[in-house]
Amino acid sequence: MYKQVFDYNGNPYLVLTNEDGSLSEKDLKEQGVYQYTEIMPPSNLYPPRKFDGEKWYGATANDTEQNNNGITQKPDPLELIVAQSQMQIAKGNVQLRETQKELAKAMLEISKLKGSVE
Predict the structure, then answer these.
(1) What positions belong to coiled-coil segments (predicted)?
(2) How far apart are CA 50 and CA 54, in angstroms?
């Protein structure tokens, strides 16, 4: 069975448990988790957030609004174009992977029909 824990920065990990329900030290080390808590960070805290052993600390939406003094930043047109291009590339990569999987399935079916794969 697995148990969810969080490192002191709020990153979640699924850790294998032993028969007695305790966390597997081996699995913790393999994942690089040395300080952890089972207390989930509040959803209203933005990263970076920290856990001091008892309580989570970090900036909230209200803190961010107060620091910006109501000023909203508009993205640079070049950054916007680059971001849109990256999104198109990512979508294309997903479609390519799906097409490759479908092609692999079709090739396997053809091989089975020809009798070369048992």
Answers:
(1) 89-116
(2) 10
